[in-house]
Amino acid sequence: MIARPVFETSDQIFVLLKEWLVGFLPAPWQPAAGVVLSVAAIVGLFPVLFAFTTVLERKGLGRIQNRIGPNRVGPLGLLQPLADGIKSLTKEDIVPASADRVVHFLAPLVLVVTVLMGFAVVPMGRNMVLVDMDAGLLFYFAMGTSTELAIFMAGWSSRNKYSLLGAMRAVAQMISYEVALLLSSVVVVMMAGSLSLTRIVAAQNQYTWGLPHWYIFTPWGLAGFLMYAIATTAETNRSPFDLPEGESELVAGYHTEYSGFKFALFFLGEYLAMFSISGLGATLFLGGWSAPFSFLTWIPSWIWFFSKLMLSIFVFIWLRGTLPRLRQDQLMNFAWKFVLPMTLLNLLVAGLWRFLGEGWERWVLCTAILVLAYVVMGRMGMRREHFGPRSYRYVE
Amino acid sequence: MFGEGILKGLAETAKNFFGSFVSAKRLTTVEYPEQRIAPFEAARVFPFLVYDGEDWLAGLRCVACQICEKECPPQCIFIEKSKDKKPDFVGKPQSYPVRFEIDISVCMSCQICVEVCPFEAIKMDTDFELSTGDRFGGLLLNLEQLVKPNEYYHQIHPTEAAEVDARLAGEKVKAEEKAKAAAEAARAAAEAAQAKAAEGAVAVKAAEETGAAKAASDEAVPQAASDAAKAAPGAASQKQPDEEGRR
User: Fold this and answer.
1) Among chain A residues, CA nearest to B17
2) Does B10 contact A319 at a Cβ distance shorter than 8 Å?
3) Which CATH code fits B47-156?
4) Annotated domain spans of chain B
5) What interhelical angle do A136-157 and A197-204 show, nearest 10?
6) What's the whole-model pTM score?
7) Contact A381 B1 (CB under 8 A)
8) How does pLDDT run across A43-64, given as a tens digit for each residue?
9) What is the ipTM, given to two decimal places?
């Protein structure tokens, strides 16, 4: 086949580029230089993607509300992030007089750094992973959970009631959904038999009759993916779970006291978290960088990965444009009374799937269990509490 | 409650998202500096002063009666009355404002000045592009900036301006008729007096009569003015004592 080398080059173009650049250095320096280059690529690429996502989001939300959205700066308003960046750089950086200055300064940095660390283990294409860690998923979740620390640092150090309330909400919400997020991912680990994200992708990168073995195309995978999607939306503080920064009640939540570029860093951190968690979701359930049909495998793997990532971002924006914000008690009830039981049940279903062996029985059984649980829990969630006349126990 | 509400909502927003690219009816945005819609007739921004004819000073309707200055709730109008007088649209000598200033940073566009004005001199403008680099001087409009021709008034509020013009024309006709009648009465009295004098009546009595006729003709014009005030809409009863006080 003549097309083979062309495909390989386009698929591995970034890997080859890195090798070529590193080749100029003496051999002992090469591994370190390679890592530095990869890190630079990640640190350079995702903020640019963030910049264009902000404009995409604003335009998308505008269209959802039958508006045009930003269209003044540059063609179609595409240079808007540049203007925003200049604005936030030139703004006054205010630190409240009673704030804990050191922690206040560190919080946005910790957020961005921990979020960026998560990208280290996500495979973005064939052979395109910074660190192919055996416990990649574990590392990812360790880093993802650290963002809570940054948010609490921000809220606590600001010494502002809105910041503190926002941070409290954020921590409560993120810890609650962290459990669901982990449990919904565990099914994938059970099936792939590995915590390494490259191995998980490799397990899904097979085709039967031209269709891929993505985990989303199984009952437990679909349920897991939906739970994962709910948990990620809460985890990244996106609407409808954007209570920590609910502007109608908390001004801006934990970043109320941040201005200028520190605020921009929080913004960046939020979007980077969205990218990385979408990338992880694609890796776990949507086959990572693998093509959706076997006849499409000639398209470079990194294109597939980034299309899946941007598709998830689009869904995030779509949800934001559709759903109103939840109340704190609804949010907590949803996490502990619906998402968590469903993920636990999903573990059982995944186990069943594994031990029922090949055949149609496992499809029927697993689907039936999940649908039944969903209906029953939906009914229970629908049950309204009826409030009688108010009685005052201690006042008479 | 099985999530179908969420799906319905998502379908609706998706319809909006794609629909806004396809149908112009959905996308109602007017991209302002380039595209504009004609201002509505009932729109109002800040007051301006109307004048008739070519020369704004000669045709200025304002007589510096200062009712608007007194009535203005945020006290944003400042008027300095002239020492001399100039004829108004019916030909009666009236004062005019030497200084007339409106601080539009204070003005709240309530239109009370327009409603109390008995001379149809102050009206609401529709010009909203008033941004300025000087937030003190630039927002304090002086007489030269405030005066605008009646044609402009017709352009921005056609219906209202036509009504005002009809009313003013009616007043003018009425005033002219009254003046004519008074002049005629005076002439008749004078003729009668002359006839009487010719008849050899007492000269003193004739002189008394001409004096009375003159007084009658003097009274005729203010009478016309107060009639006009009655015809004007709004606080007619309030205006009457003010005008009396002015005199």
Assistant:
1) A64
2) yes
3) 3.30.70.3270
4) 47-156, 165-237
5) 120
6) 0.73
7) yes
8) 888 888 998 898 888 888 888 8
9) 0.71
